[in-house]
């Protein structure tokens, strides 16, 4: 389909906006002239949004007025002198109090606002504005205004927000730089002086703190005697070169134990000795090593790794796998935000809500649809972790699960066909089996007296086989209905459920002189009817396979991680050979003959299917003659789990 002129224009407009954001970002990294950067940003906003006016308003310390720090289009003399109120009746004041861009299509019809003289005097009709700086401590407001009625698009708001983020970062960097300069002005470097014989002539207090914490008397002693390890490092070579060439040297070097520190050193020679200024840079070196290792891991992992700004949702870093998978160059990718890439999040506000959840949990796994550069999508499983370094980073590790999803769909379709077959087969077999069973019973009633001993035995075998077949078909039908005929999950009191199961088994318990001991059981989330089947089967098996001694059964429970409970049914019976333990959960698998133990061979398979429906696990631990422990995991009912 051919693109329309309007669509082409909008695309060019969006590309231009991205180019300007990239240019301003680069300027912010390169320049140390903050005022010039602010002015260039305001000019760019007016130019790209095609508005007559643009301004950068700085919130004054009192908090009730905004100062026109920079602007385009305003009458001469206003920039650098004019102020506007910061109350909630003005667009600028409202902007300060919200994280979202404020768009006013027509100030003349907007009843909520009483615009200041700055806008009224210039016949401003429409405007769009965003905060500069964090919402809880804003620096000011960046805005664009038109004298004719304008409808600003969502892309315009995104562009303005991106420019504001660049300015906020530049302002924060400037503030940090000034603070550091003030700190460095108050705290001098460590310093010592050496004469031409390499003897200490002076050390300041900071030097003693860094290299002489024991408080030795160093003045008058030879540096190589007091610090012999320096001779094996760069220190001796660099100091001698400075003295020989009579030129300043700067270097970084590690001093081993007992100092175990990295130092940044500047040595200034003179005809009578050497003046050495130094500082401990161990922490910086450690961070650099960590970042180098991190970068190596990023580039060699087969998963996509993304570093994300938790507030703006912008990508701060990405490895090669992420760029290749998403189809972007790294520079292109770093211009995007998470909502641009992941359909799970509606907008930045939705992303920030997710960030708070991640901070609470420390890490989280989500699945969503990621969008490639060419517009195609693919399913991804993303592990998100909140990491704090010099500032907040959010680390996301994404894995393309397209093949996994396809296998899941194939498995679901296969399971559905299997369920349909099992249901149809078991259902359709019911009627002929009922006919066979009924006629066998009729023959027994009418003609039983006419059979000899062999005939009676044969007839009994036939009737017993038909009944066992009925039990197997009923079990198969029940097995096929676990997913389709189960009840919705709800909180289930396992103590009460176990009491009901023991009531149902009371006759068998009395006949076998069995003892059942149980710990207090938890509440779980599940299908009470199906869970009752599970416990009935496990306890029935424990009674059935108890051996010659009266059954002794214990029911225990353990709290597991991630909100799950483990419940175990422990018996002292005949046990199971380890080689056969996986088979016991297969349909119609029997480990003993029917003459030894009765049963259809479907009970444990049914238990496994029910537990899997509850997203749990079932397993057995056993040795022949040592009893068996059947354990299951189930989801806890309480939210705190």
Concise synopsis of the structure shown:
The chain has 641 residues and is of the alpha+beta class. It contains 19 helices and 23 strands.
Describe this structure in words.
β9 and β10 form a beta hairpin. 43% of the residues lie in helices and 24% in strands. The radius of gyration is 39 Å and the shape is flat. The chain contains 19 helices and 23 strands. It is an alpha+beta fold. α1 (5-30) packs parallel to α5 (154-186) and α14 (402-447) runs antiparallel to α15. It has a 6-stranded antiparallel β-sheet.
Question: Any chance you could write out the topology, listing elements then pairs?
Answer:
Elements: H1 5-30, H2 34-49, E1 53-59, E2 65-72, E3 83-85, H3 91-96, E4 102-104, H4 117-120, E5 126-132, E6 140-146, H5 154-186, E7 190-195, E8 200-203, H6 205-211, H7 223-226, H8 234-245, E9 249-255, E10 261-270, E11 273-280, H9 282-300, E12 304-308, E13 315-318, H10 320-326, H11 330-333, H12 338-341, H13 348-361, E14 363-371, E15 377-388, E16 392-400, H14 402-447, H15 453-480, E17 490-493, H16 494-504, H17 506-512, E18 515-518, E19 523-526, H18 528-544, E20 552-560, E21 564-571, H19 603-613, E22 618-622, E23 628-635
Parallel strand pairs: 18-20
Antiparallel strand pairs: 1-2, 1-6, 2-3, 4-5, 5-6, 7-8, 7-11, 9-10, 10-11, 12-13, 12-16, 14-15, 15-16, 17-19, 20-21, 21-23, 22-23
Helix pairs in contact: 1-2, 1-5, 2-5, 14-15, 16-18, 18-19
Tell me the fraction of residues in β-strands, as a range. 15-25%
Protein structure class: alpha+beta
Write down the overall mean pLDDT.
Answer: 83
Low-confidence runs (pLDDT<50, min 5 residues)?
Answer: 592-597
How much is the radius of gyration in Å?
39 Å
Contiguous helical run count? 19
The percent of residues in helical segments reads: 40-55%
First-last Cα distance: 53 Å
The largest pleated sheet is described as:
6 strands, antiparallel
Q: For the largest beta sheet, what order do the strands appear in spatially?
A: 3-2-1-6-5-4
Overall body shape: flat
Q: Give the number of DSSP strands.
A: 23
């Amino acid at each position: 389909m051919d693109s329309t002129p309007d669509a082409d224009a909008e695309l060019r407009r969006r590309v231009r906006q991205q180019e300007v954001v990239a240019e301003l970002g680069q300027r912010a990294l390169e320049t140390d002239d903050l005022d010039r950067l602010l002015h260039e940003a305001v000019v760019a906003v007016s130019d790209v949004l095609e508005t007559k006016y643009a301004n950068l308003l700085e919130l004054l310390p009192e908090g009730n007025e905004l100062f026109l720090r920079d602007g385009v289009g305003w009458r001469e003399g206003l920039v650098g002198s004019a102020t506007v109120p910061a109350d909630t009746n003005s667009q600028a004041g409202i902007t300060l109090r919200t994280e979202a861009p404020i768009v006013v299509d027509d100030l003349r019809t907007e009843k909520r606002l009483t615009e200041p003289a700055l806008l009224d005097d210039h016949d401003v009709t429409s405007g769009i504005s965003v905060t500069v700086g964090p919402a809880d401590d804003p620096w000011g407001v960046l805005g664009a205004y038109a004298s004719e009625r304008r409808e600003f698009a969502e892309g315009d708001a995104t562009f303005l927000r991106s420019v504001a983020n660049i300015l906020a970062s530049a302002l924060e960097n400037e503030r940090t730089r000034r603070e550091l300069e003030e700190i460095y002005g108050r705290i001098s470097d460590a310093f010592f002086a050496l004469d031409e014989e390499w003897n200490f002539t002076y050390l300041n207090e900071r030097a003693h703190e860094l290299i002489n914490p024991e408080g030795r008397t160093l003045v008058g002693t030879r540096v190589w005697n007091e610090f012999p390890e320096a001779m094996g490092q760069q220190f001796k070579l660099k100091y001698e070169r400075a003295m020989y060439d009579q030129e300043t040297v700067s270097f970084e070097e590690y001093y081993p134990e007992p100092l175990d520190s990295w130092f940044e050193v500047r040595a200034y020679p003179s005809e009578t000795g050497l003046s050495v200024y130094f500082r401990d840079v161990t922490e910086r070196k450690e961070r650099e090593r960590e970042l180098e290792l991190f970068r190596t891991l990023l580039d060699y992992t087969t998963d996509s790794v993304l570093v994300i700004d938790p507030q703006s949702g912008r990508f701060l870093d990405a490895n090669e796998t992420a760029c290749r998978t998403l189809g972007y160059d790294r520079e292109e990718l770093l211009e995007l935000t998470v909502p641009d890439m992941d359909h799970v999040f509606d907008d930045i506000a939705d992303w920030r809500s997710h960030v708070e959840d991640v901070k609470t949990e420390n890490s989280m796994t989500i699945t969503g649809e990621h969008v490639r550069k060419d517009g195609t999508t693919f399913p991804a499983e993303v592990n998100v972790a909140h990491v704090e370094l010099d500032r907040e980073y959010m680390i996301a590790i994404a894995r393309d699960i397209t093949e996994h999803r396809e296998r899941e769909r194939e498995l679901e379709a296969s399971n559905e066909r299997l369920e349909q077959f099992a249901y149809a087969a078991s259902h359709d077999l019911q009627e002929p089996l009922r006919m066979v069973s009924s006629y066998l019973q009729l023959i027994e009633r009418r003609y039983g007296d006419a059979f000899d001993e062999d005939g009676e035995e044969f007839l009994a075998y036939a009737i017993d086989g038909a009944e066992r077949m009925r039990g197997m078909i009923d079990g198969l039908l029940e097995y096929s209905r676990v997913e389709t005929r189960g009840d919705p999950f709800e909180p289930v009191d396992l103590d009460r459920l176990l009491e009901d199961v023991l009531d149902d088994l009371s006759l068998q318990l009395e006949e076998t002189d069995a003892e059942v001991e149980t710990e207090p059981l938890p509440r779980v989330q599940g299908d009470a009817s199906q869970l009752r089947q599970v416990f009935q089967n496990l306890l029935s098996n424990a009674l059935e396979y108890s051996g010659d001694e009266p059954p002794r059964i214990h029911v225990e429970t353990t709290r597991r991680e991630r909100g799950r409970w483990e419940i175990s049914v422990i018996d002292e019976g005949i046990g199971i050979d380890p080689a056969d333990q996986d088979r016991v959960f297969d349909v119609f698998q029997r480990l003993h003959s029917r003459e030894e133990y009765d049963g259809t061979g479907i009970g444990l398979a049914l238990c496994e299917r029910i537990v899997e429906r509850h997203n749990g696990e079932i397993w057995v631990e056993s040795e022949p003659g040592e009893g068996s422990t059947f354990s299951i995991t189930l989801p806890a009912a309480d939210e705190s789990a």
